[in-house]
Amino acid sequence: MTDTPTTTAPATTATLAANTPRRFYRGGERILAFRGLDVPADFDGYRPEDWVGSTAHLFAEGGGGVTTLDTGVPLPDALRSDPHGWLGAAHVARFGEEPHLLTKLLDSGERLPVHSHPSREFAAAHLDCDHGKTEAWIVLVAEPGATVWVGFRDELSPEALADLVDAQDERLLAALNPIEVSVGDAVLVPAGQPHAIGEGVLILELQEPTDFSVMLEHERFGLELDHAFLGLDRALALRSVDHGPVTAERLASLRRRWADVEGHGPALPDEASAFFSAEVVRPVTGDVTVPAAYAAVVVVDGSGTLTSRHGTREVRAGDVLLVPHAAGDVTVSGDVTLIRCLPPTA
Ligand SMILES: [Zn+2]
């Protein structure tokens, strides 16, 4: 760990406290339960997201979201003070001093609105940003029958999409592909695809590091139109939305069972790797050693140890860690399952 707030990356790992900005939709109790935390007396029920290793800000709703390390240093400052130690030379050479990854825990205490996120190309052209927002969901907890929705089943004309958005009724959700999910599922959501998350799931979410969302459904959540359409003209904002169709075959290609991995393997479809990757580490037949990398690590089951060149630390389910590249190769031992969330490959 660092001795002073401005020195180098920690030699092993930083434990991250919960970072749960207030949002417009309900949730958060499953995050507290997962992390082994009590529900605070002043819990307001609107803390559905825990932003992990975040250098990104909320687009609206107060602009919070950036991670502060336990040294009191905001993560962006820590990265700037030692980019090579945190991110590794190859990452810095390719991407600069930004992780290019936002990781969250998300607990849906109610169904989220139907929304979509712009692509890199759209964000570069209209939002003055190099990142769009492809995202992926790794299901950690799911109530029976829990459902998510991805992509329009049938192709919609621009006029039909605009009509659905005008109506602000249940037809918008009904036009999407429903996917019943259980613990162990993973779903990739390419930028542009409209989607929603039903009530009763805790997911580990990987995203490009922006908070750009086009809120196709906004009225019932009380969102201002400026917020809903990213400050853009509505017709322009809707041009960022994929009109479908997302076929059953395409849908299957976006899914994977992360719980099937034994040893060490990918949690997400290969298509995700242009944006980020997630790896399951479960040392069932012997220790697993993973190469040095900047990673947000979420321990999802059991307990064990992480050993790097600087020592050994114990971990258990609910721990959320940020591992700097400078920690070197890390060996995972024990009856433990963890998921490493990684930036795009340099
Ligand atoms: Zn989303």
TrEMBL record:
Keywords, sorted A to Z: Metal-binding, Zinc
Gene3D superfamilies: Jelly Rolls
A Pfam family annotated for this UniProt entry: MPI_cupin_dom
Coiled-coil features, chain-numbered ranges: none
Keyword Metal-binding among record annotations: yes
GO molecular function: metal ion binding
Alphabetized InterPro entries for the sequence: Carb_Metab_Reg_Kinase/Isom (IPR051804), MPI_cupin_dom (IPR049071), RmlC-like_jellyroll (IPR014710), RmlC_Cupin_sf (IPR011051)
Recorded superkingdom: Bacteria
Domain Mannose-6-phosphate isomerase cupin, residue spans: 275-341
Signal sequence coordinates: none
The name this protein goes by in its record: Phosphohexomutase
Organism of provenance: Knoellia aerolata DSM 18566
